[in-house]
Model the fold of this input.
Amino acid sequence: MSRTRILSGMRPTGPLHLGHLHGVLKNWLELQEKYECFYFIADWHALTTEYESPEKIFEFSEELFLEWLSVGLSPEKSTLFIQSAIKEHAELHLIFSMFVPVSWLERNPSYKEMLQNIQNKELNTYGFLGYPVLQAADILIYKAQKVPVGLDQVPHLELTREIARRFNYLYKVDYFPEPEPILSEVPKIPGIDGRKMSKSYGNAIFLNDPPEVVRKKIMSYVTDTQRPKKSDPGDPENRCIAFNLIKLYFEAGEREEIVKDCKKAVLGCVECKKRLADKVIFELEKIWDKRKEIEREDWRGMLYKGIETARDIARQTMEEVNIIVFRKKMF
Done:
């Protein structure tokens, strides 16, 4: 590999929203300019929670790919593919599962947290417990050296590093790298009710929302609850939920003016949110226009090209892994 290899993925469980755009995709766009990037649609991972109703996963997978292209991910700069199209992910996952202790999986903090928080689904399944092993296979089958993660995801990556070390120790090889995290500052993107933006909370602004819907949602944002009238001075930096979006969509000078006018009770919340809606819609229009261009092109051909690139690498890795484990080339 001439450049450092990066790998990351996203589950196709619904349309993308502003949280995905600013929390993940903007970072991916920067990374594809500097690294050899592999970005995959994690449809098998989606099955860990959506196994009862998987019929929309394929539809969401195609939509996710189109949205990736619309925000600027490039098949010329990155390898973009669907996880389930590369069967070698499952094969490597199977081999890893033979030697990963159950205790490693049970101590995963995200596993415990999701079991507590998701009450409407049966998650005491083999697949849900073992998804970090599949995640390790996703990363290591491409021998990725770095993985972009937030601080809360570092324990997941540490398990991948442990699996790489255990494989190398058991089979007396120096084969799999121990991938390092690329820690990214994930901006807080609140939904219209102040909670973290999420489709499951019904508080998200989606990238495919039409302009009038975007405007309506932004006008519904919680602002300074201690400022019932325009004539009351506000404190946007500490009390306004919408200010988290303002920090993303306004330049420093404009933000300073908004803060000053709000504190002086010159700028009201309604007018401020109108300005914010204009900014958000202006930026989303670029994505919508790009989407129209992409839909006129052979975008499925772009996806197949990424799949073939990923498959060639994954097959080579599995040939080598089978030689290491079984001391012979498999069929």
Summary: The chain has two domains: 5-188+298-326, 209-291. The mean pLDDT is 93.
